[in-house]
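Worked Example 4.2. Consider the chain below.
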Amino acid sequence: MRLWSITTLKSLLVPGGILLLGVALLLYSGWLTLALPALSFLYYCALLGGMLLAWRFHSSRIFFALVVLVLAQQAIALFVGGHVFPGTPGWTALQAATVLVPLDFVLIALMQERGFTVSAIAPVGLFLFVQSVIVAVLCRAAEELPSPAVRAHHLATVFSLPGYALPVFAAAGIFLLTRFLLTRKPVDSALLWSLSAFFLALRFTGTIRASTVYSATAACILAASIIENSYLLAYHDELTTLPSRRAFNDALLRLQNPYSIAVVDIDHFKRFNDTYGHDTGDQVLRLVAAGLARVTGGGQAYRCGGEEFNILFPGKTTSEVVDHLEQLRATIESSEFRMRGGDRRQSNRGPDRRNGRARGRARKGQAIRELAQEKLPAPLSVTVSIGVATSAKEQSDPDRVLQAADKALYRAKANGRNRVETASVPRRRSRVKAAGIA
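Applying the procedure from the previous section yields the following structure tokens:
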């Protein structure tokens, strides 16, 4: 799996990273001139809007992340005054937020999405409630301590985070970044950028206006991730991670002449499902989709239903893409798909399996010899048939091009499968490989 690519970088930065960068530029340039009451109103709108979206789309992780931000912000607003020094309630609240918010975000990232059932939200709600009570008790206890002697001219100017703040946030950020690279989920990206925005809100706690702006940004990033995740569900196939039919139809509207469309179909896919089950069929779909995602020649693959995939080549003709499709076909053909072997234990162990050491050693030796002689299941061959067509100069209707590609695909199936056929002139193959079930 490629950890870094243009698509991965785009998924990481949009929308969270871009939003945070834009807000930071507005603040430093002085273009953000809204008054503090207006910024506070936007902050609460972002929180309420994000919670409503999370509830509507059954995203409990985003909901709890927003709750964590609210609790931390309220604790800081309640106990942090015009100055923060060790030994004051404000310092205690700041220490708690510095440790608990990154910890909570990491735990939320590790949570399984289970919606808003009582059994799912009750433990998390209780955990956050206990955290809030402990922080409140510690801050109230700090109020009973004698105030430290501080010079008067430092009260409004001196402010700093605890020394461990940056390492704690950095460790949590690295974890969230690593998790995003593994899962490629918008939620993990949103947690990363929201945590970064909250760190800046803590950093500028002494400047209420800047702190409010970054707090609102943290809430907006989480709310935007719900929309981004909904977009992915609507425009991407969850099984193969390729763009779906809806994305394909949208791409057709933007095509300009010339362009080519290739239709790809897995050979004998129904036989895979009937013989080995739908789980194996899903593995075959993922295998083929992984090859299609790496198609060369500037093509973009889409899963349009079942075992059928389409590839768009904007600005390319049949002669320019047919070699790339032939390379794709050969790559999929050479990919080995090996079934997992069955359970090696053929008989149940009885209650007398410990009787007789000599007999036990003999059986053990026999089992080892059987395992050594056992052969791995033979790999299955997965092949695809491909039909390709190019738009005509006088007629560039995508539906007609797609129909021509479908006819070429049917001709590839009729001529023996595991081949590439064009809509104009049938292509000859000197050898057609018929291997295994495919």
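The first strand starts at residue 259 and ends at 266. The radius of gyration is 30 Å. Compare this with Example 4.1 before moving on.
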